[in-house]
Design goal:
Layout: H1 2-7, H2 12-40, E1 46-53, E2 59-63, E3 66-68, E4 73-78, E5 83-89, E6 93-99, E7 108-111, E8 116-125, E9 133-139, E10 150-155, E11 161-162, E12 167-169, E13 176-178, E14 184-185, E15 190-194, H3 197-203, E16 211-212, E17 222-227, E18 233-239, E19 256-258, E20 271-273, H4 286-290, E21 302-305, E22 312-319, E23 323-331, E24 336-345, E25 348-355, E26 362-370, E27 373-381
Parallel strand pairs: 1-8, 15-16
Antiparallel strand pairs: 1-4, 2-3, 2-5, 5-7, 6-8, 9-10, 9-19, 10-15, 11-14, 12-13, 12-17, 17-18, 19-20, 21-22, 22-25, 23-24, 23-26, 26-27
Amino acid sequence: MYRHINRWDSSAQNWLDEIEYMKYYASERPVVIRRNLKNHYELSGYADLTLSTNIPKAGKINISTLTIEEFPWEGIYFRDVPVSIEAVPYEGYRFVKWLPPEYGTNPKIRASLPESLELTAVFDPVSGQVSSVVINEIMYRPGEEDCGDWIELYNNSGEPVGMSRWILKDNDDGHIFEFPEGTILDRDDYVVIVRDSENFSKYHPAIDDFLCCFDFGYGREDQVKLFDSSGELIDIVSYTNTEPWHPGADGTGRTLELIYPSYDNFIPESWQASYAPGGTPDSINSVFTAVGNSNFDKDSRLLFYPNPAAESAVVKYRILRPTDVKLTLINSLGYEQLILVEEFNRIGIHAVELDASALMPGLYFCRLETEYGIEITKIVVVR
């Protein structure tokens, strides 16, 4: 230090002053750059953005090229330039909506920002439990033959469920439908709640047992929320009319149908547009029967047929949530004979063919291993 001071005929104070100037330059440079960009591109001004989450450590927010994990976070953007923002829940949580509510329920948004905005990502804990009463079918935009909006619930438990004074809502908490006193949903049964009883009955004349009527409509990007009489959230579905949600339910006269009642109905891969025009109110969903779920009993995830098998056979298995899958054939001595599947699988019904003619006659076991359990079924090969 002193050799340089002597060489350049300077002082320690001058060196400290230069460092302070460099700090000042670095701190003021972003302001100058933003001003130059605004003037060059004739932009109208700046947007002060604050990002936060409703629950600490429940998720992160991606904005443009940045990943924000500590909140609240503040940034300055241009008002005329749309910004991509995405809410990403951590394990054990799920994204519900943005606040203010006009930013919707899609975790990915692209928005031009106002002069000042405090944007909050709302996350909810995921209990890991499948609700006894699930939102099973949604008619949100009927189309030309207007039967009105309606929602179907299904009792996925083995016991009747009392639903007196339960509440159905959309994404506006001021929109409320209260279930009548004495409402009971029997086990493995359905209840349909309609917006317009007259139009619904015209389109579905065979159904006379439904609840009427909610005085609000479900939109293209909306939520279906179900609360019990104490105000506890029982089930929630946040859907849109764009991928990864199935767009075939928007204005076509078809519904969003849950593929299987035990699937996680919060994720879009658990839903499809109904095969049946007008949907299937008060009955089993058309997509459920179309994919062959009726071959499974209530608890099984693994099916082999024909059994016994002599030549070609099929192994069908049901995946309830995305997972790594290993499907193997084990001989009677307990040794692994064949690996039929070893890959990541999404929700749904999967099938693989097995050439039984290449196997020696005898007893075998088909073993399905996933991240959430193991299931084994016994099979017999004959000649």
